[in-house]
Amino acid sequence: MSFTKEIRLTKFKNLFLLMKKRGVSQTKLAAALGIGQASISKWKSGLTEPTIENIIKMSEYFNVSADYLLGMSALNIDVTEFQRAYFTLRDENVQLRKKIEDLTMQCLPPVPDIEEVVTAKPPVFDEVVPVLAVKKKPPPKKKSHKDIFFENMRKKKESRK
């Protein structure tokens, strides 16, 4: 087998694995693609390669990506399953956001209408509440050198007694 045939076989091996896994014969695939069964046989033997149009048709037929069919991706992701999962998660996300919004709105106080705020009159108090003045202690005086000297002298006298 030539090198180019080996490359072609490895390039399209996922296609033939899918056919085998899903029980799709060459005849059945050829009918679905609107081509002759001999074309698929040539792809399998490595003599020719499918056209881009046929690759797209096969990816739609098997619900897989073209990358997977071409052997460029090892992941066999069913496109419809992927889309279903995506839309399900998207819908759940929307529902969760709505629930969070609702809970947030329940916890927050109602926001007054702007007209109510602008036209509201300030509250009137019937009684005047007296404000108690808090007296602060004055900061201590700085002692002069003379005051410190006499204070030390007084302490010495008291300690001698």
What would the principal axes of the Cα set say about the shape? Answer: elongated
Total of DSSP H or I helical runs spanning 4+ residues: 9
Mean pLDDT: 78
Strand content: under 5%
- Under the CATH scheme, the architecture of the domain at 3-77 is Orthogonal Bundle
Q: Helix and strand succession?
A: HHHHHHHHH
CATH level 1 class label of the domain at 3-77: Mainly Alpha
The CATH H-level homologous superfamily of the domain at 3-77: lambda repressor-like DNA-binding domains
How would a textbook summarize the main sheet? Answer: none
Q: Low-confidence spans: pLDDT under 50, at least 5 residues? A: none
Structural class by sheet pairing and helices: mainly alpha
How many strands appear in the DSSP assignment?
0
Helix content: 55-70%
CATH topology of the domain at 3-77: 434 Repressor (Amino-terminal Domain)
Kindly report how far apart the N and C termini lie. Answer: 123 Å
Radius of gyration (CA) equals: 44 Å
Describe this structure in words.
By secondary structure, this protein is mostly helical. Among the domains are: 3-77, Orthogonal Bundle (434 Repressor (Amino-terminal Domain)), CATH 1.10.260; 80-111. It contains nine helices and no strands. The radius of gyration is 44 Å and the shape is elongated. It starts with a helix and ends with a helix.
Present the secondary structure layout.
Elements: H1 3-11, H2 13-22, H3 26-33, H4 37-45, H5 52-62, H6 66-69, H7 79-107, H8 114-119, H9 145-160
Helix pairs in contact: 3-4
Using brief descriptors, characterize the structure shown:
161 residues; 434 Repressor (Amino-terminal Domain); mainly alpha
